Prior knowledge:
The structure is a homodimer. Chain A has helices spanning 11-28, 52-55, 62-74, 92-100, 142-158; strands at 35-40, 43-49, 82-88, 105-110, 135-137. By secondary structure, chain A is an alpha/beta fold. In chain A, strands 2-1-3-4-5 form a five-stranded mixed β-sheet. In chain A, strand 1 and strand 2 (43-49) form a beta hairpin. The first copy, chain A, is globular and about 45 Å long. The A-B interface holds A 52-53, 56-61, 64, 67-68, 71-72, 74-79, 91-97, 99-102, 114-115, 117, 121-122, 124, 127, 129-131, 164-165 and B 52-53, 56-61, 64, 67-68, 71-72, 74-79, 91-97, 99-102, 114-115, 117, 121-122, 124, 127, 129-131, 164-165.
Amino acid sequence: MNTLAPVPDGGDESLMKLAVREALAAQEHGDVPVGAVLVREGRVLARGHNTRDLLGDPSGHAEMNALRLGAQRAGSWRLDGCELFVTLEPCPMCAGAVVAARIDRLVFGAFDPKAGACGTLYNIPEDPRLNHRTRVVRGVLAEECAEPLARFFGERRDGGGGGGI
Amino acid sequence: MNTLAPVPDGGDESLMKLAVREALAAQEHGDVPVGAVLVREGRVLARGHNTRDLLGDPSGHAEMNALRLGAQRAGSWRLDGCELFVTLEPCPMCAGAVVAARIDRLVFGAFDPKAGACGTLYNIPEDPRLNHRTRVVRGVLAEECAEPLARFFGERRDGGGGGGI
Lengths: 165, 165
């Protein structure tokens, strides 16, 4: 794990590529391929991928894992000044966690028409009624982010697995 | 911790009293006093209280802690057939986690006008667009649940602490 590695050149797209790499790590153990990267002051503070099935943890989404690990490393639940990059639009739980952790900026790749809570079904991070607002950037490398998900669910259907997130 | 203890007689109110006791445990280490109890098939599967400040975990809300511990004990992220009792209306993160864990029924005490996501600002558990619906019962022992919160924030104000959840 490239802890506190300098952020690669190329801005949001380079960081989203790191998140895609994390998504592939989830797929290796049979979890829905979603990945996240948490950045502070030009450094990667934490990475996370979906471990819901691996660990039997309902809160084991990529974003939650990156936020928890980042908070551990930062020594505080307040992640002011941080940006979170995630391959799939966060669900209500993860969008709420982004606000709870006081993240400055959220960048996501693929939209989630079924559970997206950052512009699709809800827009929790930018809700002016909550006590913190996180700016949201949408659709960065959307196709590259969606591709492992399409392949994962396609294979499960072909194998008779069925499913959904 | 009374793991797998039989549920006391008296229905929702008795279980909410257990959740209030958990809330007081949070207060003992200076965290906002919120408590939760997870029940399955007439047994207490897990309890949790707020550990956000104690552990520096942005996801350390009472509900999240009870859900994670319950899933560990059940050996699965799917908590079908479970009911969650919590002293304060869940925020978006926790309301989303209730849905993600496939909880059957959520019972809360005090309403949260600032961040409540189970009827106040949002109604995430009962949103028909999501892939699971959790029934919500509101306002059980609301005053008893709100009292430790009022006292906690009152003392912080008196001591010049300020704050908010």
